[in-house]
Amino acid sequence: MPERDDEEREFDIKWADGAEHKEPSARARMLTARWKDNPPGPVPFRGEPEYRGSRRSSPRGSSSWVSTAVVLGCVAAVIVFLGYINFRPY
To answer: Do 24 and 32 touch, CB atoms closer than 8 A?
Structure first.
């Protein structure tokens, strides 16, 4: 019986995908209604990015290189530790 349900579902998906008229999504309908009275203005392909500042407020203004150095230092420490474990005598 489950095989028949899968076959029917596959048929329904193919049937729905082959429909000539597809209803627009709720978001498309909402934007169409909103833009009917107030159409959006032209937008450049790539606008100027807005300066948002850092995500974290730090008194010294730490930058991304500090976090990169911390991560690389941790990776190096793990590599050295694993090397120490493998080369020590039993």
So the answer is: yes
